[in-house]
Amino acid sequence: MTNTSSSNTNPGCLGSILSIFGMNKKQEENAPESFPFRIRDDFLSPAEQSFYQVIKNMLGEAYAICPKVSLADIFYVTRPNENRSAFNKINRKHVDYLVCDPKTMKPLFAIELDDSSHQRSDRIERDAYVDGVFEAADLPLFHIPVKTRYNTTELKAIFDEVLLPQVEGNSPESIPVIINPGQPPLCPKCGVPMVLRTAKSGAQAGRSFYGCSNYPKCRAVVS
User: Fold this and answer.
1) How far is the C-alpha of 222 from the C-alpha of 210, rounded, in Å?
2) Which of 67, 121, 135, 180 gives 20 to 30 Å between its CA and that of 207?
3) Is 58 left (phi over 0), alpha (psi -120 to 50) or beta?
4) pLDDT digit string (tens) for 111-149?
5) Which residue has the higher pLDDT, 30 or 194?
6) What's the CA angle centered on 74, arms 73 and 80, to 5 degrees?
């Protein structure tokens, strides 16, 4: 005669194995080793921290200073499907300081603090590529050599080359929109075909306009 009560309560070999596997998996997920992360004590090196205080005292509250910003957070590639390799080249690179407008957080210029490591051949090659990225995007990048003391007058003169024209409203001329009959216009910033959209809210609700296909990375519009 079969003992039905025993068969109902005994999970059997397979059940025991699954139970052990499930328990071990849960313990593994909850183990501290699954998240072996700690806060770095050297987020900014002593030289980077010292220079940060210098430019912070210089620029005050008029500008926002962001240290160690990834280039992929600053720039985008205009044709991502065609330029994937270009994105990969900036994805793991960063700039030491990015100075922004505190109201809009629009990048104004960047700073690289160059120590002796920048004299290595691999760093020279890396710096040349990063310089090309900033130049292509028309965002100024300044290279400042590491020093024990900095001449703030000299630094102010360097930064004013970028900041004063923007304060005085002397912005560069806008790029003309290229329009071909029967085709959508090309984005004046990216050079890619724009997309016809309709405003859903605001004073322009219901009106059509052309927006960049790279939105929201690019917010250029054409009426």
Assistant:
1) 5
2) 180
3) alpha
4) 999 999 999 999 999 999 999 999 999 999 999 999 999
5) 194
6) 75
Q: How many helices (H) and strands (E) does the chain have?
A: 7, 7
Place of tokens 């052309």: 210
Q: Which strand ranges, in their side-by-side order, compose the sheet holding 221-222? A: 194-198, 208-212, 221-222
pLDDT score of 171: 44
Pair 83, 184 in one domain: no
Residue 4 belongs to a domain: no
The domain total for the chain is: 2
Is pLDDT above 70 for 31? no
Judge contact between 73 and 79, C-beta under 8 A.
Answer: no
Domain containing residue 163: 46-167
Rounded-to-integer distance, Cα 2 and Cα 173, Å: 92
Q: For the purposes of burial, counting CB atoms within 10 Å of the CB of 182, is it exposed (0-12), middle (13-18) or buried (19 or more)?
A: exposed
> Averaged over 161-173, what is the pLDDT?
62
Query: Is 143 in the same domain as 201?
Result: no
Report how far residue 165's alpha carbon sits from residue 171's, in angstroms, rounded to the nearest whole number. 7
131 and 214 share one domain: no
Domain boundary among 147, 167, 187: 167
126/180 same-domain check? no
In this structure, the answer to whether residues 134 and 90 fall within a common structural domain is yes
